[in-house]
Amino acid sequence: MQAAIKPYQSLFFKASFTMKIMRIISIFTFFSIVVSFQSCSTSSVETDYLIFGHFYGECVGEGCIEIFKLTDTVLYEDSNDIYPNPANQSYDGNFKALSNEKFVLVRELKNNFPDELLDEKDSVIGQPDAGDWGGLYVEVVENGTKRAWNIDTMKDNVPSKYHTFVDQIQEKIALINK
Fold it and tell me: In what order do the strands lie in the sheet with 47-55?
C-alpha cells in the first residue's frame, strides 16, 4: 500500500524539478555564449605579439644577438641575448620597453607577418648561421598558440615568399639600433 502524498510534498517536488531545469538551461546558455565569442575572428592571423631578431654564433659583442618583442602598443628589447632555439617554441627573454619613437619605426612589421609561415612544418628554414652569416629568430603568438622559427639570412636558402619579410626584419633591427 502506498503512502498518501501530502499537498506540500507535491509542491516541493515540482519546485525542485523546476529549479533543476532552470539550472540546466542556464548552464547551456552560458556555454553557448562562450562558444559563440570564441568562434569570432577578425583576421586570418591575429597575433598577440611578434618576437623577432637576429643572431650570430661566431660573434663577440652586444650586437651579436638582438631580440625584440612587438605588441600592438609597445616595442621591447631583450637583455638576456640568448641564442634562440625554435625547438623550445618560446624565447625566454627579459624584455624591457623601448621608447615610443622606436615602436613607431617598427609597428607595421606585425601586420606584415606572412601567413604562409604558419603552414611551415619545420621550425628551421634554410641553414641559419651555418656559415657564420647569421640567422633570424621569429616567434608569433596566434590566439594563444606559439610558433617559432629560425630563418636563414642568406636568401638563396630561403623560399622567395619570405624574402620581403626577411628584409623587413633586418631593416627594422637596423632602424632600432640607430
Answer: 95-97, 75-78, 65-70, 47-55, 135-142, 145-152, 124-125
C-alpha 90: how far from chain center: 9
Instruction: Please give the Cα distance from 81 to 59 (Å, whole number).
Output: 12
Degrees (nearest 5) of the Cα angle 72, 90, 113?
45
Rounded-to-10 torsion of CA 173, 174, 177, 178: -150
Q: Rounded to 5 degrees, what angle do the CA atoms 164, 78, 129 make?
A: 50
- 3-state SS assignment for residue 172: helix
DSSP 84: P
Distance CA 40, CA 130 (A): 42
pLDDT tens figures, 115-166: 999 999 999 999 998 888 899 999 998 777 889 999 999 999 999 999 999 9
Tell me the pTM.
0.71
Torsions phi, psi for 149 (to 5 deg): -145, 145
> What whole-number distance in Å separates Cα of residue 72 and Cα of residue 47?
9
